[in-house]
């Protein structure tokens, strides 16, 4: 297990991360971590490694793009002084290009996305023990679908930055693709974006596998 | 225009038809017709043909399949004595096979669908001046998508029954396909099923074209 | 069609324009354009001309008079940099003289109305590709009715300013008059001001006719 | 004053009478009489004639026509054993012909109106000390307005029945006409039907004058 | 009638005046004047003297004492520039001495009451055409009751100031005493302070009598 | 202490007893006993005599008169098989005569009150170990007040029945009178009926004194 | 993995099972399975074994004891025809003896508990492929705590019945005990009964281990 | 009785003190003192010593630790100028160490607790007539329980400071221990912290005994 005794792991992202987490803290009891994969990861870590005392913080905010992350980076990441940082961003950067195509102010194209994300990682990397980059995803099995193709490209950017800065990369799209061989996308997310309980567990498991979590410990 | 002075046109269907229409009446002022294509059709008819006095009734119910329609057919169709009847059903019959694949009690497979729909049309046909059959649709441009393929088959059943009983057929899928050449599905329906305002107007226009509505009158 | 590829069309006005549009943006999915004629125009444009990518923004605010428009003109019109601007204002300017006759501070008499509207058009005209002036209206068939007479005079002012600045003029009162020959005012607006779904479609159709929208395209 | 010590006066009618009265009782403290003319009449009677102990009951129901009154007559009138009965009905009977002209099931035409009202009065007359018939009204000053003309005819029916059965007749339309010489209809009722506080006071005063109420007592 | 064409009459006071009036304006349609005696006075004035165009404004605020009135006097009275001003204050000044006797900070004793009220009248008198002083009241028939005795003394202060500055004095306590000979206090106000609909009509009538309102005009 | 190990004590009455108790059970945790004197008695008994395991049940219902108690006596008293029964009823029987004097159907006059109460006690007495009769009260210090005089008479009836059937009598009026020498009625109950927290503690203490509760145990 | 292709697994129990599941169905999308261990089990099964198509149904009901299960057994278990059945009951049977000790009607003592549970298992066993018995638990580390001792005895009964009928036994208390060595009870359940997200994951993992679920598959 | 005529007694603390008291005042009628022991103390004092006119103020705030008290001490204690001050704090200081053990920022360890509390008492002591220190408590009968052991240590700190500054000490833990011999903790507080009505009465009685309150006066 890559996480060690007493470390603090902070998650930042969009609505897939947020999931009604308590604001502004993003930690505590009574559903403070929200109802999504962050809560699942916390519950699995505490169930299997209660002796490690890992502290989980959720700083997801609905509707965020990487442009929004940049604005709140100082407050919501740097000042929190996490040991580990996990980022999953990019879904809205792409989605707005497809659901509101005429409102171009709301789109974050791939160059801005890459540049901003790289800048944030570069700035933060020296201050933390490790960074996890979770690719944005689209729960659509057709690889030729226009939005799926775009999301795959954003995912590729994330993968490259992960390699560049020696981050852990979580291939969320691959995790969903595995399941999509057996289940139609609607059973994982009606809008192909916001996961059901099963969808969030898929994300949690993909994350935990990359940090060497051992279910059978 | 196929509708004539003082006729009553009743719409029945699922959530795409319902759209928060007032229950049980399904007619009147103050949004009683709901917020979807039925209200658009009414508004366009009254705007262009106010002298005809066409009476519109909305009997859509969220979540209905053709099996549900059969149960309320006597009350919600026959007792209403409409001159014209419009039916759009089948989306939930198919969708449940894809979003809750393990709950087979909720699926209405194509044989039951065809048999039930034919029975209802046969029984009702002698009592009305005309029937409009609107195909169920799936706002997905990929024709190889599993659910799209299934929906196309249900749509074909509707088309055949329309021919068999000399009904007006509205090819809603074709109407959406036209637009999907320019707009991605997310801008017409986040879940590819429940249309935005634009999606409902596409349905209304497809319907009105088949009854020879003349915008420029 | 007078609107061209990628243009932005902004509507400003009072409660007839507002119709629960989302604030402050006035654009986006999920009913962000409100439930009135602006949403209808958007839905009809996207249904028939999806390839043009027209961007619609709704900046109506309940209860506004031309005096209120002036206060928010910089923020809600000029800073938005629309290509086309549509204005429908004046109903409250007149109505307050009739429903709260003793609160004279709330009345905007015709001289102030004309002067303010002309000033706004003059200031904005150089910055946009086109302006549409929609006359204020009163859904009352009796031309001798005191408030109808007043509204007609305000409408005349709008028409004159339209000619003066070469704007497109939409004669909304004439559009309603057409329908009032067949339908009593109560079926279009209980208070003769706030239109039903049919009333809003009448406004949308009157607007679209003036910009050469082609339903049959 | 025509009302005497300890008598019970029951009002029945539609939404103009109802005004959020408590159901089913229609009497008691804490706004049980609603917020309209019935409450005004009660307040004025208790203020000026507290020694008489007049008991007021409000049995108005929103949306009622004379057809609806007939259905609940036994329960809401006869079983209540009032000494005096006041009826104001007919607005919806007429209005539905104008605001939802195509839903003819909802219309109560003048023959049915007259026949039903006469039957009810005839049946009740022997059991009460007095009946007050308040004409239905339409707060529209133009006598040539289609709905005003219709309402005047229904009012005439009421007046004739009042004479026939020796009831007290309250000419509510005349009371409003008096005020409409000075105030525009919108200041008394936005939809020309549901009165403002002033409109309800006009009704109360018209009623009280006919029963010889003395403000200066 | 003492009020003349086009004059503005402003009411200020505590919860008996407030009665859910709209804030901050205190005037307009749709119950903006609240549900108490102010609304009754407005309705009676418009019903009988519609030609005068009297403008009524309600600036009552729940829980106010004369100490609170002083704080908002500039904004809520002087800046409003009324022609006539009506003040009813003092109930809370007394009541807090009886319902929360140990919280002495909340009490306004008679010397402070008199001094403050006199100061406000003196300051305002030159700027208005007339002032109406309505005595505070306590709907308790036992003159020896401790709180009733206190309220009578505050009422006496009001009467003296009225004489001193030539204001119209409305003896609200006397008006209630009249009715209390026939009705027990509970039927006019459960807590002997907040009037029922009847209680508010008694206040309205007492006020209107002093300004020579003529019901039979 | 008159209550013994494991006994069940049931309270029945009106809104003073009810105080938002949970329905229908009237016992359990989380405020199930309501917020009034019943909850206070339970809390004091459990605090001082936890070893006795006294079970308290609250069957108060808002607005009840003795006529209402009779209707639900079988279900809410006899079937519950309490060891001890406490009854406080009569406030509404009297109050309705004073707050809604013209609605005589709602009044329960003293003969009916006495007869009904006696019948209930007679019927129940053989089945329980003891009955506590709490007098109805009116928190008004003036003994000449009309409603206080009436309540005192009802209280006298209760006292006589208590003697007749050898019940414990709790003189609630006397308990309040004690306090009224120092505190004005408004500080114990704004409407002189529904007690504040202090008022309920006065009732609890009066009750407990009669059953020989020992605070200092 | 003991569950096989297409099988239906039904959970029944109390509030720990219920967790706001949708009623009456207890299955479907959108949180229909509630927010507790049942949802976790479903999410983990679908994430790891999507090809098996296991159907999960949640029939937990807040506050239930084994006495309540018996009443709804026919409807909620037998008629559902599950392949596998999981039961966790007994917490309320014990808890009521400790939190409301005087209300003995609410207690289910160990003999009744054992007898009822055995009867249900005996009756159901022939109709299903397998039964899982999850012991009731109390998240308290002190084995000498009175309620913990009682719960352990109920758990022993469950274990014995499991052996008797060859059911799978899930030792939930042991699973919590493991964690309680590192975490204090408050961090798993404020009231030592209703688990946090972590507590539910501990239950899910304990269950899944007994059916040979393989996280690393 | 240690409290004397006209004195003001202020309570400060956490959620056990707060109990939905009105903010910011913390005094007045209508439940302004909350639903806990503060309200009980007030009710008992007014019931037995109404002639003393003791003024009670509640300044409890949910979730507070001694660190939070320090921040609002000036406003909520010193500026209020109480004669007597009662403090009960420390539960959250301890609890956070047990329910959210990994969020160390939220813990207030015993040294900081002692130092801060001593500083506040030292600073305030000269300005008041008396201070009551109520120990924090944990309604758990097992003295070896980890959190109970910690709470006992914090309680010891409070006792020592009380002796040091000559304050009245209320041993709340001892009061609960007395009851725990007969009742299990769940019947006094489901989470062993927030008392039921009985739990609050135990606190009130423990407090009142220390100030020589005489129930039988």
TrEMBL record, chains A, B, C, D, E, F, G, H:
InterPro entries: Ester_Hydrolysis_Enzymes (IPR051532), SGNH_hydro (IPR013830), SGNH_hydro_sf (IPR036514). CDD domains: SGNH_hydrolase_like_2. Coiled coil: none annotated. Pfam families: Lipase_GDSL_2. Residues 11-200 form the SGNH hydrolase-type esterase domain. It comes from the Bacteria. GO terms for molecular function: phosphatidylcholine lysophospholipase activity. PANTHER family: SGNH HYDROLASE-TYPE ESTERASE DOMAIN-CONTAINING PROTEIN (PTHR30383:SF5), THIOESTERASE 1/PROTEASE 1/LYSOPHOSPHOLIPASE L1 (PTHR30383). This is GDSL family lipase.
């Amino acid at each position: 297990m890559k996480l060690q005794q007493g470390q603090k792991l902070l998650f930042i992202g969009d609505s897939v991360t947020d999931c009604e987490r308590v604001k502004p803290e993003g930690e505590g009891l009574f559903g403070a971590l929200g109802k999504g994969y962050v809560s699942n990861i916390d519950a699995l870590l505490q169930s299997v490694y209660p002796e490690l005392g890992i502290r989980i913080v959720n700083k997801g905010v609905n509707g965020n793009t990487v442009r929004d992350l940049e604005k709140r980076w100082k407050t919501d990441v740097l000042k929190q002084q996490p040991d580990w940082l996990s980022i999953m961003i990019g879904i809205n950067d792409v989605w707005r290009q497809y659901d509101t195509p005429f409102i171009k102010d709301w789109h974050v194209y791939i160059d801005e996305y890459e540049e901003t994300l790289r800048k944030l990682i570069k700035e933060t990397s020296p201050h933390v023990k490790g960074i996890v980059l979770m690719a944005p995803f689209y729960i659509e099995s057709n690889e030729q679908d226009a939005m799926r193709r775009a999301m795959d490209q954003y995912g590729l950017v994330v993968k490259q930055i992960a390699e560049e800065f020696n981050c852990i990369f979580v291939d969320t799209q691959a995790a969903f693709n595995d399941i999509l061989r057996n289940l139609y996308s609607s059973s994982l997310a009606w809008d192909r974006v916001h996961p059901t309980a099963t969808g969030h567990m898929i994300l949690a498991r993909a994350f935990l596998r990359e940090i060497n979590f051992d279910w059978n410990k």
